[in-house]
Amino acid sequence: MLWVVFLNPASHSPIATIQFIPFYETHSMTYPVLINGEWRVSTGTTTFQAVNPATTEAIAGDYPVSPWSEVEAAINAAAAASKATRGWPGERFAKFLEAYAAKIEQRADALIQTANQETALPVEPRLKVAELPRTVSQLRQAAAAAREGSWALPTIDSKANIRSVLGPIGPVVVFGPNNFPFAFNGASGGDFAAAVAAGNPVIAKGHSSHPGTTRLFAEAAREAARETDMPPGFVQLIYRTSHQDGCKLVSHPSIGAIGYTGARHTGLVLKEAADKVGKPIYLELSSINPVIILPGALTERLDALAADFSSSCLMGNGQFCTNPGIVVLLKNSAAEQFISVVAQKFEAAAVGTFLGEGVQKNFIAGIQALQKAGATVVTGGQPGGGKGFSHRNTLLRVDAKTFINNSADLQTEAFGNSSLMIVAQDEAELLAVLDHFEGNLTGCIYSDTQGSDDGLYDRVAPALRTKVGRLLNDKAPTGVAVSPAMNHGGPFPATGHPGFTAVGIPAGIRRFGMLQCYDAVRLHRLPPVLQNSNSTGAWRLVDGKWTQGDVVT
Which of 98, 118, 284, 438 is catalytic? Predict the structure, then answer.
């Protein structure tokens, strides 16, 4: 935007100030894309609009579907930026990330207002109190890791004079999801922060549910990049591409790696394209996050468990990747009472708004698929009940035998405010259910605090452990702490690879590094982190021992 100040001709003091907003910000004109450091009018002929989920009305302003020529221009600019930053110390990337975090905080009100309009997520506590602070914290944690350098696992064999370290892999494409407009945004989220901390330029692929929010992030990133002397193509933004061009993007020779969070089908299409040319692609896809409640826990604290579970399941209208979508119970009167109490809480709870029409349609299709596979509706099951795109809080149930015989269809993800109760006749059936689970991000076991469930727990936990990335005890799975020990990953189809996490530093950064080995390279030619003097204080594996000291020869 532009500010024009009118001065008094006699005194030259200001008498009026007028704010001029670019035409594209006030009319239904196509917003520009960010390519090679400049906002450019798109050459695409197809556009789309964001939609307010609470009103189901389109939001003013069109966004372009970029043609291949535009996508290729972004790739070329990112490749040039990658060449320009080769050999840069982590300090350079840390300064950018910190400057960017400050720019985001300066734009907090606009970001929150825009995200609320585009997603219907509440301003407080979700956007203002939780997600925006988490986003800037992630960026600053990534900056600290980039500056210190231990994330890169510098390893030195002084006798053989062989040294290795993780270095930048090259331009990274980040596809952000619809449900976290800040913390997982392609232009600001965890994948973005990790890719930059590893020293890579980023091409952000905005999500169609919140393009305006992503544009505001890109504006802040561009300013931070200029202030910290980053190459013009270091951060770029395109809003949407054709499916064919998306596959060409992830398989382009100049792309180093890809981070993707979203629908399973789309992710697997991109994975196939990337795999054909050997490009690492890190996917977060779908997860139903099973919860196993053991009998003693129900006897001890049934009402508290029902409240805990219902709150977790319906939080954010169920639109969390760690939403508990399946509960496994052993058949008895307490289990039946638990299902009844949860149904009452579902009926009493307010019905939230989905992130968009597509989420609502997929949710309805998921509920119908579960019913077709043998599940019955305990409560809910009908569209509506809330503002805009909505569906009544839905609880379903099925017996364990039916689940075992039709486990694939009964693990259809209904992404939203629903859950499926599985009732097993005995311990053998319960364990058989666990054996039929697909991979998930999380799995939780509730047990008696006095120890009556310990024997059963010891048989259940090993069966569940291999099916989930994060195992919880007596704790709802919905929250994901940004901790170095966190694993936000899991076996397929939760992610595309069980050995990596999308949350947690330094582990999340390593996805976007390539192992670089130096054999008999003269000491003064080595990267600083591999030289004998440890100037950054990074932890290094020197001759089999972790140390922050210098190499003594």
Answer: 284
Average pLDDT over residues 108-133: 97
Q: Is 1 exposed, middle or buried (0-12, 13-18, 19+ CB in 10 A)?
A: exposed
Residues 260 and 317 both lie in one domain:
no
The answer to whether the bond into 506 is cis (omega within 30° of 0) is yes
Q: Could you tell me if residue 110 is inside a domain?
A: yes
Give buried/exposed letters for 325-339 (b at 16+ CB in 10 A, else e): bbbbbbbeebbeebb
Domain count, the chain: 2
Provide mean pLDDT across the span 258-275: 96
For 259-283, what is the mean pLDDT? Answer: 96
Alpha carbons 123 and 121: distance in angstroms, whole number: 7
Q: Does the predicted TM-score (pTM) go above 0.85?
A: yes
Comparing C-alpha atoms, which of 85, 84, 74, 83 is closest to residue 252?
A: 74
- Within a 10 A sphere around the Cβ of 390, how many other Cβ atoms? 22
Give the tokens for residue 41. 């009018």
Tokens of 219: 């504006």
pLDDT tens for residues 67-77? 999 999 999 99
| 313: annotated active-site residue | no
| Residue 444: active-site member | no
Name the catalytic one among 321, 429, 438, 444.
321
